[in-house]
Amino acid sequence: MDVIIGIDLGTTNSEVGVIRSGVPIVLTDDGDPILPSVVGLDPQGKLLVGRAARNQYVLSPERTIRSIKRKMGQDLTVDLGDQKYRPQEISAIILRALKERAERVLGHEVRKAVITVPAFFNEGQREATREAGELAGLEVVRIINEPTAAILTYDPNPPEMERLLVYDLGGGTFDVSIAMVESGVIEILSSHGDTNLGGDDFDQRLLDFVCDRFQTEHGIDLRESSRARSRLLAAVEDAKKRLSSEPVATISEEFIAEMNGSPLHLTQDVMREDYEGLIEPLLAKTLRCVDDALSDANLRALQIDKVVLVGGATRTPLIHRMLEDRLGRPVHSEIEPDLAVAMGAAVQGALIAGVDVGPVLVDITPHTLGIEVMSYPGGFPNPYQFSPIIERNTPLPVTKTDIYTTAHDAQKVAEIRVFQGEEDDTRLNTLVGEFLIEGLAPVPAPNSLLVRLDLDLNGILKVTATERVTGLAKHVVIDNMMERFRNRERVNAIDRINALFDDVDHAPAYDASPAPRAIEADDDSQSDDDGTENELLDAIEAARSLIAKSEELVAAAAGEDAAEMKGLVQDLQAAITRSSVDDIRRVSAALDDLVYYLSDV
Ligand code: ADP
Ligand code: MG
Q1: Which of 236, 409, 505, 552 could form a disulfide with 206 if both were Cys (CB 3.0 to 4.6 A apart)?
Q2: Residues within 5 Å of ion ligand 2, judged at the Cβ atom
Q3: Is 8 a catalytic residue?
């Protein structure tokens, strides 16, 4: 039988997938699953596709073509060397490279393919994509939407009635789509986006940040030299990727410039916080698109069952936090976000060919892992603050590092207590290990400590604490995390919360005079509620009944009132997700007023 390959023909990167032993996989070349969507000619006129073409782009833009997908369906030509090509011909070169990759790995000829396109592509753009496939020697058995492919990867046999939001942030484009799955059919309800926003813009902002600092220090603008720019672009993209799992990235480029005949080196640390500040305005734009897509689909955030992240740039942790805060719905990124679309195209191919496919099995951490820190909500010390490091549902193996600081001047010892669980209060989570790092430098607070968690496929967790100034390090290895995940104590956080409800009137829930911890969260910790756990639970309970009441009223309400009510319900749900008593109370009060007013009319 003919295999049908699945192709994600991306603006920045392309991939090819097939079904093997009933599950989708992405085919690699030299271990790399990604083929940059770049075509070029080398100085001798030889064709370059992928990484080699991409590497020469900054230095030889006249011999290199990138982002051809933006031109698909337009009646124009692009120059490459002394020839002119139509966009579908350049795309055909990329498709041909992917077809050959598949043939090399599979060891036989490949003739058929499913190719994905953005949901917003019009008929002309789809037709051009189909033609590109044919020029590459492929029979295009179907063109499917990228969000549809992503959904198929998560669920090859979609359940009855589910609504999903697919957030796709690639190298140069952003799309958000809302889809409804019903009777195995995936329908796109709405789609919004920004065709000029993606990870490349993050690189650009980081490049400017690094160059501005260098210019302040040395009076030289590195952006003026195309060689320096080219090296720095690669370096900042690499640093950006590291900042997805580490709190600080060092950029180091030797001999980047010259001053008075002597060479200048560039060495800079970029803190994740600073980087997040640079990209936040760009991400705010994507949230506006999310709102627009929801309102076009006539849905509230609460009606979305799952949020699915696609596109390499969604590996940025800030994006997860932002979407969770805004939508209050579970966010999924277990499947490599830049490979999910190609896998889904392969699933579609298998469904057409009548081959059985199962879900992609990824080992994930079923609970969040983090450490206990000191926080100061409302100015009072709280020694039981949980600070997550590895979020739940992260695929294994995973390594993540965060930065913390000591609380006292000349603090010699810090206690690292590692917990698993989803609660802000460590007493509601499970302690999995603890150790002391002793002999810290006698410096004033804050003294930075890097805490790194490595969790491998066998469930072995290594926790390392390193003092930044001296490099002094101490670690522990915690075995059998998977066992712990499975046999998690019966009395888990939920039971404990239920118990709290039972005892509300009797005993205080906790020891009232806890011993202070030795380290504190660096300012990104969630220092939200200043109430006790009981206050939080009461506020949540009241909020839930208010939400139920609003949902009864909203159908009968006039357009404007209904919209306001929907907005407030969303905000309230987000406040509940954040466990922020203050926010829950504030939004509840506003919603309560509206409910009162509407019940009256
Ligand atoms: P497209 O669909 O546009 O062809 P991709 O989905 O492959 O592109 O996304 C490419 C973008 O993802 C690039 O900007 C790349 O730098 C970014 N990216 C890849 N890995 C990471 C990471 N670990 N952290 C942040 N960004 C990443
Ligand atoms: Mg893509």
Answers
A1: 236
A2: 10, 170
A3: yes
Instruction: Tell whether domain 1-153+337-359+485-514 is in CATH 3.30.420.40.
Output: yes
C-alpha 341/C-alpha 343 separation (Å) is 5
Structure tokens at 423: 């609660």
Q: How far is the CA of 420 from the centre of ligand 1 (A)?
A: 30
**What's the rounded Cα separation, in Å, for the pair 601 and 565?**
15
13-20 and 35-36 strand pairing: antiparallel
DSSP 529: -
Residue type at position 7 = I
Indicate which residue of 168, 336, 372, 529 is catalytic: 168
pLDDT at 494 over 70: no
155 carries an active-site annotation: no
CA of residue 393 to ligand 2 center, whole Å: 22
**Can you give the pTM of this predicted structure?**
0.77
**Axis-axis angle for helices 581-600, 533-554 (nearest 10):** 30
Residue bearing the bigger pLDDT, 595 or 361:
595
- Is the CA virtual torsion 69, 13, 339, 209 positive or negative? negative
Instruction: Report the CATH number of the 199-278 domain.
Output: 3.90.640.10
pLDDT tens per residue, range 131-141:
999 999 999 99
d(CA 350, CA 156): 10
Q: Out of 8, 424, 528, 583, which one is annotated catalytic?
A: 8
Question: Which residues sit with their C-beta closer than 6 Å to ligand 1?
Answer: 10-13, 170-173, 198-200, 237, 240-241, 244, 311-313, 315-316, 338
Task: State the pLDDT confidence band at 519, using cuts at 50, 70 and 90.
Answer: low
Does residue 382 carry a pLDDT above 60?
yes
What pLDDT is stored for residue 518 in this prediction?
Answer: 54
- Residue nearest (by alpha carbon) to ligand 1 atom 10: 171
100 is catalytic: no
Fold of 369-478: Substrate Binding Domain Of DNAk; Chain A, domain 1 (2.60.34)
Q: Whole-angstrom Cα distance, residue 430 to residue 484?
A: 10
What percent of the chain shows pLDDT beyond 70? Answer: 90
Please give the pLDDT value at position 506: 36
Active site residue 168: yes
